[in-house]
Amino acid sequence: MKTAVQLFFASPSRHSLLLCGFVFCAVFATAILASCSLTPLHKNDGSFAVPQALAAIQVEVIADREGVFLRRRLRTLLYADGQATPRWHLEVRLSEERRSFSIGLDETASRARVRLAAHWTLTPLANQTNSFAAQTRTSFAYDIVSSAYATEIAEEAARDAALEELAERLVRDLSVHLNRTQAG
User: Please, what are the domains in the chain?
Assistant: First the structure.
C-alpha cells in the first residue's frame, strides 16, 4: 500500500509542482532571513532592551486638548511595564491641518482629511547637546454630511483616531532610534 506522499509524487501534476515550488520558496526565504542581520526591536537577551529604554523617556506636557490626548496615549505605550528612572527627555509639538476634498456637483465638499504631524525632539538627560529631532505624521478622512453636529463628531472621531495612530507611530520611531543609537 502506497502512502499519501508516494501517491502525491508518483504522478507529477500541476498541484504537486506548485507545492514543490512553494516549499522551495519557503526554504529559500527562511535561509535568506536567517542570514540577514535583522534583529527584533523588543528582544531581551541581557543587552540593550528597547522596552526598558522606552520606559525611561520623560514625556513633557503637550499643549491643547490634542496634546493631552497624545501625551496620555504615549505614556500608556511607553510605560507598559512601569516607568523607569528618566534617561531621556521627549518634547513634542503638534501641528494639524484640515483639508476638504471630494467636491460634489454642487461644489460642496463631501469628505475632509485631518492631517497631524508630531515634531519631536529626544534629548538624553546626561548629554543635553546630543539631541535627536524628527517628525511623525498621520492622517484620517471623514465624511462631511448635512448635519453640522454629525460632521463635527465625525471630525473629532477622525482626529482621535489620527492621534491614536500618531502615538503608536511615534513610539515605533522612538524604538527604532533608540535601538540604532544603542547598537551602534
Answer: 4-35 (no CATH), 50-183 (3.30.160.150)
Contact at 8 Å (CB) between 131 and 91? no
The tens-digit pLDDT sequence of the chain (184 residues) is: 566 555 555 555 655 666 666 776 676 667 665 555 555 555 544 445 788 888 899 999 998 999 999 999 999 999 988 888 889 999 999 999 988 887 777 777 788 999 999 999 999 888 877 789 999 999 999 988 888 999 999 999 999 999 999 999 999 999 988 888 775 5
- What does each C-alpha distance from 29 to 12, 23, 25, 58, 124 come to in angstroms? 24, 10, 6, 40, 39
Burial of 122 (0-12, 13-18, 19+ CB in 10 A): buried
